[in-house]
Amino acid sequence: MDLSVLHKLTYGMYAVGTLDGIRPAGCIVNTVIQVTSDNPVIAVSMNKNNFTYEAIKKSGRFSISILSEAVERNVIAELGFACGRKMDKFCGKNFACGVLDGLPIVKEHACGYMVCDVIAMHDAETHCVIMARLTKTLGGTDEPPMTYEYYHNVIKGKAPKNAPTYQVEVPKSEKQAQLRYICEVCGYIYEGDITKEADDYVCPVCKQPKSRFKRM
Ligand SMILES: Cc1cc2nc3c(=O)[nH]c(=O)nc-3n(C[C@H](O)[C@H](O)[C@H](O)COP(=O)(O)O)c2cc1C
Fold first, then answer.
1. Phi-psi region of 82 (alpha: psi -120 to 50; beta: other; left: phi over 0)
2. Are 190 and 133 contained in the same domain?
3. pLDDT, tens digit, for every residue of 125-146?
4. Which region is the signal sequence (predicted)?
5. Is there a domain that residue 160 lies in?
């Protein structure tokens, strides 16, 4: 089956924030949809391996920050590629964090916020579709919301394994396969000879220097 047709589905970019007890947790998702309009219900597809999934199962609540195109790249690097099991991703060290109704949110460059109460969790094999009712909304910046297409085409970002839209990349040739480097911080893959880049080259996703790339 040719799965490339799935690349034509469109999405946005969101940060989910929840609590593990009193500790903030959360991750990046691209799979938020509005399900109903009356007393609105939304749905999110969440990988069962994500720490955020465990925390939402326990707390029954989460926030959604709708990320704008100008969002600090650290937000995506921290929330989208690191796991909150062993670290506090909302500590405010790597990007500005806020709190809404007791839940962690991305404070800057978010177009708006939603606070949600879980009403159902539907099994979807590797993932779980979380249905939740909106209990509060809050406006944010007027900057354009970041689409998944913008993330891929402008920021040149990738989706990690836990994202429902992840697809294994097949190198075009043996030669190309020999010249791939991974950013140790966010997982961005550089194809080609990175040594030929200028000394001030930085990772397009998390802005780490060339020295943080490892040959794959
Ligand atoms: C662009 C992008 C989109 C993502 N979309 C989803 C998604 O829709 N659902 C999901 O479960 N994980 C998604 N992820 C992956 C999680 O953000 C990632 O696995 C994160 O490290 C989980 O952190 P946690 O273990 O602290 O919950 C996405 C990541 C990125 C970078």
1. beta
2. no
3. 999 999 999 999 999 999 999 9
4. none
5. no
Percentage helix, strand, coil, to 5, in the chain? 20, 40, 40
- 190 Cβ inside 6 Å of ligand 1: no
Specify the number of domains making up the chain.
2
Tokens (6 digits) for 153: 């085409």
**Cα separation, 97 vs 26, whole angstroms:** 12
Atom 4 of ligand 1, nearest CA residue: 29
Cα separation, 170 vs 168, whole angstroms: 6
- Residues of the chain predicted below pLDDT 70: 168-177
In the structure encoding, which two tokens stand for residue 53, read together? 């999934």
Closest alpha carbon to 205 in 71, 11, 113: 71
DSSP letter at 108?
S
Site to substitute for ligand 1 among 50, 91, 122, 158, most atoms within 8 A of C-beta? 50
Whichever domain contains 190, its CATH number is: 2.20.28.10
Mean pLDDT of the chain: 91
Q: How far is CA 204 from the centre of its chain?
A: 15
Supply 59's token pair: 């707390």
Where among 153, 182, 205 does a domain terminate? 153
d(CA 133, CA 116): 5
- Same domain, yes or no: 210 and 143: no
Residue range(s) defining the domain that contains residue 79: 11-153
Q: From atom 20 of ligand 1, which residue's Cα is the shortest distance away?
A: 80
